[in-house]
Design goal:
This protein is α/β, with parallel strands linked by helices. The chain contains 19 helices and 20 strands. Strand 15 and strand 16 form a beta hairpin. Helix 2 packs parallel to helix 3 and helix 8 runs antiparallel to helix 10.
């Protein structure tokens, strides 16, 4: 599978309402006016609305957007609930939640009167309701034959307890699905473990390097859309494209999650992808503090793997990070390995969470495995973090003391690409160089 190059707007994108574009930077007034106009004409009066929003690991001016949504819906809808799409990330406590949504600690009711805010408590089985099952044959069809396994579609019951589910969040190139956003805020955003594991493992089988930044409906996107079609609530989406690392927006689109996402993904493909003429020997990915562990900071590898030469290295520089994953301690036990390490020893690993296996392969990148030669990975992955060296090496990664990192020296090295605020912008080789890395 290779990255698709769209030649023009898709039919789905044309069905969405959109303001802005790749060259635009919208003002707060433009954003507010668009959100107000779209929601005012959406027939939501008297309905209960669940707004599904990202956690703090994505660049997004959520206070601006949520203020506009609240202003458009408060007093008109019967109930307004915000659900934080954690996936399987750590819950947000009051202080970070207040910063994220734009209210002083303890001041939710004053800032957003009548609005309830919930973390997606993915660790609690009572959180979920089952929507039904996608059969093994259907999964096989959607995945192009890569997987043939039935999956129970469970989702946070807050979604089904409301008349309308409104996705509100950004779109970026993504290592599992191609481009994030849209129905991905439901699955895996507020989903049960089964569909999370299956969808992520499907992405791992395709491989991150092949699926990330792929335009159109990838096999993983098709699976997610199929699951979302089972949601009984009316589904809508406000999909935004943010300037990476900032609160500025290039565009906002509105419609069904499929249509709004398609319109946003076209803009993201133009604004969140950088092309290089030749592969580099080394990358220094400088990770911002919004990534609190390697589970999330691994995006600094995903977005750069495509431009690293064979035998090269990606350094994740994040002195503030002190753990691989508090939520998924099993990753430290199995370590990081290429896809074939798992698929060719499937009986050893098939009963573990496939989502954890997927994360492992995504960070370790391309490689091969066989009994005679063992595991051979294409690039070296080095952590320059606050994680103890024995833990890093025990997870099958290379260690570098973060105090030894001289950013100026790396900048002066012609064979090193230094990426500040890494994790959101995808780097690729130009098409005629794709086979060089």
């Amino acid at each position: 599978m290779t990255s698709q190059q769209a030649s023009g707007p898709t039919v789905a994108a044309m069905r969405a309402a959109r303001t802005g574009g790749a060259e635009a930077v919208l003002t707060d007034a433009q954003v507010t006016r668009f959100v107000t106009e779209q929601l005012s004409g959406a027939g939501l009066d008297g309905r209960s609305v669940c707004v599904v929003v990202p956690d703090a690991t994505r660049s997004c001016p959520l206070p601006l957007l949520l203020t506009a949504v609240h202003g458009a819906l408060a007093g008109r809808v019967s109930r307004l609930t915000v659900l934080i799409a954690l996936g399987t990330h750590a819950a947000m406590d009051e202080a970070p939640l207040a910063r994220h949504l734009g209210y002083p600690e303890g001041g939710l009711a004053a800032r957003y009167p009548g609005m309830t805010v919930l973390n997606h408590e993915w660790w609690d089985p009572e959180t979920f309701v089952s929507l039904g099952t996608i059969s093994a044959d259907r999964v096989g069809s959607l995945s192009g034959g890569l997987l043939r396994h039935p999956v129970d579609i469970r989702i946070n019951r807050a979604v089904t307890d409301h008349d309308v589910a409104l996705v509100l969040g950004p779109v970026f190139p993504h290592e599992v699905v191609g481009f994030s956003g849209g129905n991905k805020y439901f699955f895996p955003g507020v989903a049960g473990a089964d569909i999370i594991d299956l969808s992520h493992w499907l992405g791992a089988l395709i491989t991150s390097a092949d699926i990330i930044g792929t335009r159109g409906v990838t096999p993983v996107r098709a699976l997610i859309d199929e699951a979302a079609a089972l949601i009984p609530s009316r589904r809508l989406a406000l999909c935004v494209v943010a300037r990476s690392g900032s609160a500025a927006l290039h565009s906002v689109s509105f419609g069904t999650p499929e249509d709004a996402w398609a319109a946003a993904a076209e803009v993201s493909a133009e604004t969140h992808v950088r092309h290089l003429d030749a592969p580099v020997g080394r990358v220094l990915s400088i990770m911002p503090e919004k990534y609190e562990d390697i589970w999330t900071a691994a995006k600094g590898f995903y977005k750069l793997e495509p431009v690293v030469a064979d035998g090269g290295e990606v350094i994740l520089y994040a002195p503030h990070i002190t753990a691989i994953s508090e939520m998924h301690p099993e990753i430290a036990e199995i370590g990081y390995h290429c896809r074939d390490y798992f698929t060719k020893q499937w009986d050893r690993f098939k009963d573990l969470h496939w989502g954890v296996l997927a994360h492992s392969t995504h960070l370790r990148g391309a490689g091969t495995y066989d009994e005679e030669h063992g595991e051979r990975c294409r690039v070296t992955v080095t952590l320059a973090t606050g994680i103890p060296e024995d833990v890093v090496r025990g997870a099958n990664l290379n260690h570098l003391d973060p105090t030894s990192v001289d950013i100026a020296a790396y900048l002066a090295d012609p064979d090193t690409l230094v990426v500040p605020q890494a994790g959101e912008v995808l780097y690729r080789l130009r098409p005629d160089h794709d086979d060089a890395a």
